[in-house]
Sequence to fold (690 residues):
Amino acid sequence: MKKFFGLSLIGLIMIGCGGKAEKAWTVSSPDKQIEVNFFTLAGQPAYAVSYKGQNQIDTSFLGFVFQDQPALKENLKVTSGVTSSFNESWEMPWGEQRQVENRYNELKLSLEETSAPHRKFDVVFRAFNDGVGFRYEFPKQPAMERETIILEERSEFNLTGDHQVWWIPGDWDIYEYLYNTTRFSEINAYSVFIPGDHLGQVYLHSNAVNTPVTMKSEAGVYLSFHEADLTNYPGMTLKVDTTSLSMVSELVGNKSGIKAKVTAPFITPWRTVQIADRAGDLIESKMILNLNDPNQVGDVSWFTPMKYVGIWWDMHLGRKTWDYASGNHGATTEYTKELMDFAAENGIGGVLVEGWNTGWETWTDPNMRDTIFDFTTPYPDYDLEELARYGKEKGVQIIMHHETSGAVARYEERMEPAYQLMNRLGIHSVKTGYVGTIIPDGEYHHGQWMVNHYQKTVETGAKYQVAINMHEPIKATGKRRTFPNEIAREGLRGQEYNAWAGEGASPPEHLPIVAFTRMLAGPIDYTPGIFNLTLKPYKEDHPIKSTLAQQLSLYVVIYSPIQMAADLIEYYQGNPAFQFIRDVAVDWEQSKVLDGEIGDFVVTARQAKGTDDWFVGGFTDENPKPYTLKLDFLEAGKAYTARVYRDAEDTDYVTNPTAIDIVELEVKKGDEIPVNMVAAGGFAVSLLAK
Fold:
């Protein structure tokens, strides 16, 4: 049920700042726990946010810097203010839960300059029970009738303490960093920035952090800063001032110094602050999704959430290659059919094939990468037409792969015929990639030009019934609500880092941080399920810092509607732990974060959509975690068969990572299951209703 109605302006109150009292407009969350105050100080617009009566964001100013016109951040007055409330429930076509409550109170304030050129804009605040979002709306107006060039947006977030922060650098090109855990006053993005890494695909403009950036105050309040509905606008980093404990938006630009080109009327993305008393509530929050428009694609039943295997890990292990000329090509018709047979036998819906198309021999050559890929021509040992037919016969989809090598303009020229080919062959999903610096030169992965490109892939995909899994992407901002064929993305230091010699495996704390930071943005294509954790005989002295039970837990905790069984299939065959991957769902009726602390551990339970079955996963960092799973979330009166996959007493992620204890129990609501986790360990439980 949807409700939308106007309210009288919520009380004009008086705020004393700098010795000068000015009028303020206030809006509160539906549960009255969060309050936003907006006011002007000497003509400068500002806001503050409190939670349960305690200030969380202190007086923070708002404004813009433009090219060829004065900055818009002072000499402003409020000409009108309107408040309203909204309450609806909407259904996700796929996702962490079926029904989403969207309930908030809104305050919309119109501002105008008190002197020429009398520019106007609105600031809109929405207060939810789990946080706050605000954005700017510029109407059509004489002073901005031509194209406007934004040099910077000045949205401040002034903190009230030196919080614990989990952060990565505000790199304009890549998000694939380990997270740092420091006090806010200790943030130094340059200390972890690696110039020249990733084929030059890195650029840091200042001491800034990327979002989502998550914090915990001394009082135990959790805050996460991000953005929602990023459309025709650059991504936002947050420049930090470690002395004043403040952040200000720093938009990703291009080498010309331009951040955004816009024409009024236009709106900006929402700037968001999620607020919670419990770390798990940050994950359960759907505020980012709710700040996006409803589904514009319509029926997307042609996309089915699925598990998949693929020709991928082979290349990272050095077992096979992407290119044909090596003589050890991975993407062959024969090998793909072998994977399709395995998938069909085990209820796995898709097979990803990387290296199927011509051009991989020179894909990183700076003099050639702009011309090599056409996304429609397979290598001679890969029969695309036959494999599409064979997959259909087996009930298994090919997942297409389009690596652009950063040659984005070329990809846009060839996108239409590539997606037409997929549509004709009944291929409904593609993994896109953007490794390397962007062509055309001067653009960055997270700038406005690329934001619009990523959007073009999603819109073209919708036209041809193709779902998009982006790698080297712009961060997710909840647009999967509007375009539900935007299914997943990378945008983090993923599993492949664990196979790359010289870079080392990610530390055990990485994923317990990711769950409360990167995962707040949206679904992650992390590629879990590595069973050969030593990587021998392909890699020596390069073990993954994980136990087998932890690899199983990732299918529940690290959310995606597509989940890869990423290892070579020979490590699954005959292994009883593989039963959990066969059983686990990928689409959910509801999800509950049962327990967790950022960087330490997390435990999540999810109910499979349309069933009474539940799946639970949990994992920990480098510290062992004694743990008892309480089944209080189950439905009363029902009996369940629990299959428990947990670390054994002798499991050790370095010396004995694949030791696992698998037991089957009959359980009901209120029962308890001991699932003690060793260092870098975890557990997974399937609860199948009888």
Summary: The first helix runs from residue 279 to 284.
